[in-house]
Every structure is written in structure tokens, then in C-alpha cells.
Amino acid sequence: MPFWNTTKIRQECQSHGMITPYREERAIRCAYELGVGSESYITSATESNTRLEEGEKVTIPPGQFGLLTTREIIYVPNHAIAFISIRASIKFQGLINVSGFHVDPGFRGPLKFAVYNAGSRDIDVDQDERVFMIWFADLTEDTPDPYGPLPTSTNIITAKDLGRLKGEVASPGELKKQMEEMKTELEKKIHAVEQTKLFNRSILFAILTALLMLYLTSFIKPYFDETGKSSAQAATTPAAATGADPSAVSRAFITMPAHLGFYILGGGGLAGLGAIAAAWIIRQRPR
Questions:
Q1: Rounded CA gap, 16 and 29, in Å?
Q2: 3-state secondary structure of 129
Q3: pLDDT by residue (tens digit) across 212-243?
């Protein structure tokens, strides 16, 4: 089963119309380089339309399957068989052919390639870009059971083809993306919990400060006020009446201004409000 060289490929294509449209410069190194056609489907697509606008690129994201068609119509004579693959320059980007690797004798029509992007980046291909390769080899004689004619259809990629590919693709790239999204979401939730705890602590501190100031103002301040009054009365009483030294009497009592308690309460309230404001600002700060 010898393979055809470049010269024989060119002769057979010209005499039997094996490739349409045929361009002689694409018959090179014992193979013919086929271009990307005007229909494609990618599993990440949100719609089922397979038609491409003239000049529109085909983008295959990482971890996604796709169907690509050839621009050329292929005919394999009954005395030959063909083998297909993807060019090495495209393979190195991560594009893998997961469909069949041969074309039956008697087949006539465009080829459909099922591909998978095993790389880490999008793979972009242009229409008519040389992506596929086809080789031909002789059979010992004409096959008695050639490939039958294809059903007539306006689309190369049919609804049956789409049904085989549709569905969520659990690829390594997609799983990695989902894990990164879950990690980011978890970090945001942890940050929100920490900020809530800080905010609640600040409010609790403010409440305790206000209660303490209220206690000091309500219970402690009146005691000092009464003590101050007693001290003042004692200071105005003649020393001879008490029989004590006036300077010693005045030093025996601690006096507090009547308005000092309000200062303490106000200061505590301002401190609490400051703590709440600081916690709110920290909570609103983006992570």
C-alpha cells in the first residue's frame, strides 16, 4: 500500500477532481494542506448557529471541544484510501484531533474534524487557514464496498452532530477555573466575616464605654458633689467651733467640679462614636 508522492497527488487531483477547489501550491511534501471551512461549532457557544461570516475567526477556548469543517470537498477514488491529521504548528498550541484518522474509499464531501483544545490558551484559526493535512495511499485493487453518497443537507454540521457535543465539559481547564472562582468567593466571605466581627466589637466597646460613663456620672459624681458641699460648709465654720485646724480640715476632703461628670460622659460618647466610625470605614474598604 504505497503512499502517493507530491507528483501523483497533483496528477490524480487534476484528472479525477479529488479536491475542490484545488490549488497546486497546497500539494506539498506528499500531502495536501486543507483549509478551515465556513462552518464550525464550539461546546462553549451559547447558540447553535454553525454558519460563520466571511472572514470570521474560529476561537476554541481551553478545555473545549469543537467541530471544524474543511473548505474543500474531498473525493477518494475506490482504488485509494486517505489519512488525515492536523498540522504540527497547530498541534503545538494544544489542538488535538479526536475524530477519525482516515477517509474511506468512495467518500465525497467536505470533512468534519472533531477537535479538543488541551492547551492553556484560546486557539484562533482563520477561515481557509491551512490547518488540516490529507495523505493518499493505493489499495491492491478497487474496494467492492465504497462509501455511499452523503445525504443532501444545507448544513455540513447537522443537528445530530451538535447533539453529540452539547453539554457541560468537565475539562481540567474548566475545573481549574471553577476552583479559582470558589477560592475567590470563599476569601471574600471570610473577609466579610472578619469585618463584621470587628464592627461588632467596636459597637460593643462603644456601648460599654457609654455605660461606664453613665455609671460614673449617675453614681460617683453625686458622691463627690456631696463631699464637696460638706467640705465647703466645714471650711466656713469657725475653727474655734470645731476645735480643729482649718487647713487640716480643708485637706481632708476631695472636691470635684459639678460639671466634670458631663465632660467624662461626653468624652466617652465621643470615643465610642470614633470607634464605630473607624470600624465602619474599615468595613467599607475594598479588599
A1: 20
A2: coil
A3: 776 666 666 565 555 555 555 555 555 445 55
How far is 211 from 161, CA to CA, in rounded Å? 74
**Which residue is associated with the grid cell 479588599?**
287
Q: Report the Cα 217 to chain-centroid distance in Å.
A: 58
Contact (Cβ atoms closer than 8 angstroms) between residue 93 and residue 124: no
Strands (DSSP E) found in 183-284: none
Widest distance between CA atoms in the chain:
147
Residues 6 or more apart in contact with residue 147 via CB below 8 angstroms? 76, 104, 105, 106, 107, 108
Residue (of 136, 158, 131, 194) closest to 19 by Cα position: 136
What's the rounded Cα separation, in Å, for the pair 170 and 122?
A: 17
Q: What is the mean pLDDT of the chain?
A: 81
Contact 192, 282 (CB under 8 A): no
Which triple of cell numbers denotes residue 248?
Answer: 487640716
Distance of CA 273 to the CA centre of its chain: 41
Q: What is the pLDDT of residues 120-174, one digit of tens each?
A: 899 999 999 999 999 999 999 999 999 988 887 778 898 888 888 876 666 676 6
Of the candidates 143, 77, 79, 82, which has an alpha carbon nearest to the alpha carbon of residue 111? 82
Q: Are 104 and 80 in contact (CB under 8 A)?
A: no
Tell me the pLDDT tens digit for each residue of 91-105: 999 999 998 899 999
Beta carbons within 8 Å of 81's beta carbon, 6+ residues apart: 1, 102, 103, 104, 105, 136, 137, 139
- Within 10 angstroms of residue 226's Cβ, the number of other Cβ atoms is 10
User: Nine-digit cell at 36?
Assistant: 478551515
28 bridge partner residues: 31
- All three cell numbers of 45, joined, read 457557544
